[in-house]
TrEMBL record:
The chain crosses the membrane at residues 55-75, 81-101, 113-145, 157-176, 197-218, 238-260, 281-305, 325-344, 356-378, 398-416, 421-440. This is DUF4173 domain-containing protein. Pfam families: DUF4153. Signal peptide: none annotated. Residues 1-30 are annotated as: Disordered. InterPro entries: DUF4153. The keyword Lipid biosynthesis does not apply. The keyword Membrane applies. It comes from the Bacteria. Keywords: Membrane, Transmembrane, Transmembrane helix.
Length: 531
């Protein structure tokens, strides 16, 4: 085989074209181009940016103080004196944070925050005077909302709803914020000694708990002293303290974070709505108002009927009579609110005639809703007259009154040009409603009305009266002997053990005076006789 001849040095060499040329595809960079520049901002970066890099000393100390006060004072199993004390520690720490902030950086005013803080303590104080658990649960939920509004800056309806969600979200967002605050406090001049003092306090509390539990189990006299100061000192007590303290520290840090970095979620500037001409909204609103007026006019005998009317109406019971009125109220109120919101949003108000027409029609619609409110309350009164009072019936009546007040606020907002006060005022009206229920003392009121019915030989469910709280004991004490034993049997078991200072409650103290020992229902038929 002959060797392949090599080209001379320096000669140009040309390669033959490939038999199968390579197929070049499109450039991948053209298919998925890489976006240049910063990424799109997130919702938090747009509506809730973090304006403070680290928590200040007042936040750290306030969270620790609120946690210690709540852990030492809060009774988890019952309403009592410890609840307003714990709430006072929480709102007090947040008020200190507000006062130490630059006034230009505050998302809310000091007066408004203080007002919501007072409402929080007032709601939690219901547990000191009333033993009704259902009422206290409503007050605790409302107190959480008032704390959220005390640190929230929103004014619009979506922002008020979001305030309740913003507080726990802010608690989680505050964890790295608090961590950097601790790091900065350690690095600051003289802060190391402060941290050591706080660590010493924590170690002292731990030693106090451990050795106090050991000494209490070893000596009866020492155990009596410990029971007076720190009752139920067991192995589970430190875990309960840690749980309660962590919850209140979490809420304090979250509230402080909201004060330093206010959220505008749901409270941004509304985009300008497309307005419609006056006849485009007057026709549907006028038609609805006409149907509403005809319905009210035709149903006047039903809406304001008394007991005799209901009894002679075929197929109409008191239960259907009251429930129908309540749902009418709820639907009409929601419909009124929706119609007013849409009309105010869409209706053109450029001329005086358009503004007057809008206010007159929506005012008439609101006035018609107030008629239904009065009708529903009238119906509930007839229902209670026939069958007696209960917790649900009293609560429904209170809710109806609140809805009536809400409609009045809407009517006032139609006259007052600025309506940003309306959402928060509606919440404040609900707080006033709950406090009014607490002043009424609903369980005792229910017991008094039903005891009077029993004395007049009317039907009265004694078993239901036995399920009321200790607030009802003074009224139930007036029943005859057998019925009294049935009605007070469950209450006497609940108040048999004395409360410590954390769970001190006026209603239970009064009930314990009336029934100092457990009461046996005896031969009285103490069972549920009405459904």
């Amino acid at each position: 085989m002959q060797a392949q001849a090599r080209p001379p040095q320096g000669a140009l060499v040309t390669q033959p074209p490939p038999t199968h040329p390579q197929q070049l595809g499109p450039n991948p960079a053209l298919i998925n181009p890489v976006r240049l520049g910063p990424p799109n901002p997130t919702l938090f970066q747009q509506r809730w940016p973090q304006r403070s890099t680290a928590a200040g000393p007042e936040v750290l100390i306030g969270g620790l103080v609120a946690a210690v006060i709540a852990a030492a004072a809060l009774p988890l199993d019952r309403p009592g004196l410890g609840w307003p004390i714990a709430g006072l520690g929480l709102v007090g720490a947040l008020l200190v944070v507000i006062l130490r902030m630059d006034p230009k950086q505050r998302g809310t005013s000091v007066i408004e925050a203080a007002s919501w803080s007072v409402a929080t303590v007032a709601l939690l104080s219901v547990g000191v005077f009333r033993a009704a658990g259902w009422l206290f649960v409503l007050c605790v939920l409302a107190a959480f909302a008032t704390v959220a509004l005390s640190v929230g800056a929103g004014r619009r309806v979506p922002a008020v709803f979001m305030a309740v969600l913003n507080l726990p979200i802010a608690g989680f967002r505050s964890l790295p914020w608090v961590r950097w605050g601790i790091v900065r406090a350690r690095a600051a001049e003289g802060a190391s000694s402060t941290m050591r003092v706080l660590g010493s306090i924590g170690l002292g509390v731990l030693l106090l708990v451990v050795f106090g539990a050991l000494f209490a189990s070893a000596d009866a006299a020492f155990d009596h002293i410990v029971q007076t100061i720190l009752p139920d000192l067991s192995l589970a007590t430190p875990f309960r303290w840690a749980f309660v303290g962590a919850i209140f520290a979490f809420l304090t840090f979250g509230g402080a974070y909201l004060l330093h970095s206010p959220s505008t979620v749901g409270d941004g500037k509304r985009s300008p709505a497309r307005t419609v001409r006056w006849y485009e909204w007057v026709v549907p609103v006028g038609a609805l108002l006409l149907v509403f007026g005809i319905f009210v006019g035709v149903q006047i005998p039903v809406l304001f009927g008394d007991e005799e009317y209901v009894m002679r109406t075929a197929g109409l019971t008191f239960a259907d009579y009251a429930r129908k009125g309540f749902w009418q109220l709820l639907v009409v109120t929601l419909l009124t609110i929706v119609v007013i919101a849409v009309a105010v949003r869409k209706a053109a108000r450029e001329t005086t005639r358009e503004r007057v027409l809008l206010r007159v029609l929506l005012g008439l619609l609101s006035a018609g809703a107030l008629v239904v409110v009065a009708s529903a309350l009238w119906r509930m009164n007839a229902y209670e007259t026939a069958y007696g009072f209960s917790r649900l019936r009293v609560l429904v009546s209170a809710f109806e009154l609140w809805l009536g007040g809400l409609i009045v606020l809407i009517m006032i907002a139609g006259v007052v040009p600025v309506t940003r006060w309306l959402p928060r005022t509606a919440v404040a009206l609900w707080v006033i409603t709950l406090l009014g229920l607490a002043v009424l003392n609903p369980d005792r009121f229910i017991a008094e009305q039903n005891v009077a019915r029993y004395a007049n030989h009317n039907n009265s469910d004694i078993w239901y009266l036995s399920t009321l709280s200790a607030d009802a004991a003074p009224a139930l004490d007036k029943l005859p002997a057998d019925a009294r034993a049935c009605a007070l049997s469950q209450i006497s078991d609940e108040v048999h053990d004395a409360d410590d200072w954390r769970g001190w409650n006026l209603g239970r103290v009064e009930a314990r005076r009336i029934v100092p020992e457990p009461v046996d229902s005896g031969r009285f038929p103490c069972y549920r006789s009405y459904r």
